[in-house]
Amino acid sequence: MSEPVRVLLVENDEAHAELLVRAFEAHAPAMEVTRTGCLREARSAIADGAPDLLIADLLLPDGSGSELVPASAGGDLFPVVLLTSQGDERVAVEMIKSGAAHYIVKTASTLSEMPRTAERALSDWRRAGRHRRERRTLLESERRYRAFYDESPTMFFAVDSGGTVRSANRFAARQLGYSVDELIGKPLSDLHVEDERDPSRRHLASCFEQPEILHRWRTRQRRRHAGSISIRVTARIVRPSGGEPEALIVCQESPGPEAVSPAAETDDRKPEGNGRRERWVTRISSALAEDRFRLTYQPIAPIGEANGEGDHYELFLRMIGEDRRTVMPGAFLPAAERYNLAEKVDQWVITTAFEWLVSHQSRLDRLHLCSINLSGHSVGNRGFLDAIVGRFTETGIPPHKICFEITETAAIADLDAAGDFMRKLKNLGCRFALDDFGSGMRSFGHLKALPVDFIKIDGRFIRDILDDPVDLAVVKLINELVHVLGKKTIAESVETTGVLDKLTELGIDYAQGFGIGRPQSIAEMA
């Protein structure tokens, strides 16, 4: 049984006080009213224990009820409702500005309605208090994250498609001998030794030509006054707040080989001519027509206290080539997106996954959550959304058992479309996960705008968390912020017991990776 709401009434007019007490007894029995008649008694009562709500007349024998507003610490302890006569209304308005929750001009009808007014004032105050606390916590988290961004022993740059530096952290400026202001507006290639300037431009161009993948290479940057440093570069493309795309570039000093390695990670991801395009379109289309795609699953495990939720796993896609060799998604999915085949691939995955679940009722009964990846091309497509809704209707699969995963890059490409797509499916009961979170310095902003349930922390921050204090700090801060926003975290690429123990210590909610379970064919789960 919940505790009663304690109301402190400060009113010296007997008739008004009696009317108020009777109104609370009749209409708000869960509110326990204590009455005092002056400031001195009110202060004594507050000292004995702060009420949940204070109602005070402006005109009291020993002063004004407005003097009790500061006692509520600006609304952080309890809300104050002021009672006033017609002539005092101007004063009451001033007290609203100084922290009172509400004021009432006393008439028989307004006094009899006081219980409802009190409930609204208390509800508004509690909601405002939660918002203030959440905002303070969020601002502190962002402040700490920004401090980490500036002081991390890693160089960060945001670069536009013309190769111009749009932002840089203080560590990068110090390393290269500039101020941050001097770096902004400077061509990125100018920060390299002369022999590496043209390769730098080519790598950057490749980033914008292939925005769906991570790009990595080695190079040498020139210090402003003397010398140079060998660095490892990781870059990816983001579209901040729906604006023009930018390359987010992370540079870490590396004493290793100075030769530049290819920007893309496999031959299948190199820039493609018309012949290569036709080959990929044919390969993917043939695989769809000949049913040569396969689904695998990988478990996602709760960490910390076991919660007995049931089966929780993510589905992955594999393509079987004409030579019967398995083709991994990193090779064919970028091509599918580039050549407008991603929606057909996503349709195949959803249709196949739903049909498998329906045909394995025992698995569906034990299922807590099945995560299905969607491409950025499918998100926001009205026809695709209608098709998903139709699949739920046809199969009878409970929507709350399905979680759709969207990469951070895909989601922020069009925040409005992604948010609308998510909200419509969430209204059915579906849940959403934001994949590869943490790669962009603007992650916090769009996290607040997207109605996701889970945040999957990019595996590159997880793998070396035991040895790299920068990765540890990033994971800790992301987890803290995500929990402030009421969402849950999933750590990707968990491969060892030591990493799992550290994630448990940090309070991460779920883990996924080879250390939890390797991907297996769904046929093996049957």
Walk me through the structure.
Strands 11, 12, 13, 14, 15, 16, 17, 18, 19, 20 and 21 form an 11-stranded mixed β-sheet that branches. Helix content is 43%, strand content 22%. By secondary structure, it is of the alpha/beta class. Helix 5 (114-151) runs antiparallel to helix 18 (469-484). Residues 256-274 have low confidence and may be disordered.
SSE inventory with pairings:
Blueprint: E1 5-10, H1 14-27, E2 31-36, H2 39-48, E3 53-57, E4 80-84, H3 89-98, E5 102-105, H4 108-112, H5 114-151, E6 155-160, E7 165-168, H6 170-176, H7 180-183, H8 197-209, E8 215-222, E9 228-238, E10 246-253, H9 274-289, E11 293-299, E12 301-302, E13 311-320, E14 326-327, H10 329-338, H11 342-359, H12 361-366, E15 367-373, H13 382-395, E16 402-407, H14 408-413, H15 415-426, E17 431-437, H16 443-449, E18 454-457, H17 459-462, H18 469-484, E19 488-491, H19 497-506, E20 510-511, E21 520-521, H20 522-525
